[in-house]
Amino acid sequence: MTSGQLKGALLEFIVRELMLNCGFTTVKADGHYIFAQRGTGCFFINGKGAAHDADVLMQPPIQMPFSYPSRLLFECKSYEQTIGLNVIRNGLGLRYDINEFEIITEESIELRKNNRRANYAIANRERYYYQVGVASIEEFSKPAFEFAANNKIPLLSLRWFLSEQTCDLFHDINTAYLDGIERELSNKVYAYLKDKRPDSTTFAEYEEVLGFLESDEVIGTILSNFNVIAQRCIIGLLETGDMLFLFATSDNIRGYFQEQGLRDNLEARLHYSATDPSVWTLAIGNYQDYRYEPHTFRFYVPERLMSQWRRFNFDINEGYNMKSEFFSRIFIFSKKYSGFGLPFTVVNIDSEWLEGLVNGS
Asked: What is the pLDDT of residues 245-260, one digit of tens each?
């Protein structure tokens, strides 16, 4: 194991934990189309051209009817430099390769010649639509952003929600750092980070690892800081299909969506930053009953929508139109927070408030 592999495993762990915290579940290997490489913790998914390393492979908390069930695969890049266009292009190629994969054998071709054949000349398996995203420690270049937006490739940078100091610690995972850890222990840390079982922290085999992480000033500090932020993160989905990573500005969001009296009255108000129009604040509350304080979440507007607003030079009226057209309804996904056992909560925009903004009242 190299320091680069350890750093990559840490990034995968954080992305996977983030998704688990938002109600996603880890896809289990079926041993055939998706298989685990023995002794490495690596998952591979078959495509038309090759089997691909699936860094983070998740299943969303809800599926859309009348279509193939979907899965989300994140390619994790722990580079020290800005992520460029070529990485995103590779992500698009990966999406094509695994979604177009099908097994056609010589035998099945021969069977097609027989119109009375008993079986279909295709593999009998459950099929999925795989969305491929790219996660990184560093930011993405402008061409990478634009290409991802035009091809609906979700992007996630740790610098969007972790502090600069925390992200910089990733690059302290180098050869000198690895040499300072006893080899057997470093291998156990790597195995822990690659372990895709959601309850792995309870396993006795990782007791030594958890003890190490409590005092470690690099990986331990990164995970400690991440755990604070992860408790504040939920995922929102727009009706356009765009995904939002929403980060609460306070710690007290647990149980908020479980309050039955609020569920039918939740509304959203949206505000954007004057210094950075791509950063918006979503305030969710019951605006008909001011006994309840709204909860606020920060998020980055998907680049595809930002590009449209940018063409109007961030005109304020066009901003109102964006709120009405794209953010009129938001699906909040989180098994941990939604009431009645549902995996999502529907939040509508406060239409009276927005109409007041448009009319200048």
From this structure: 888 887 766 566 655 4
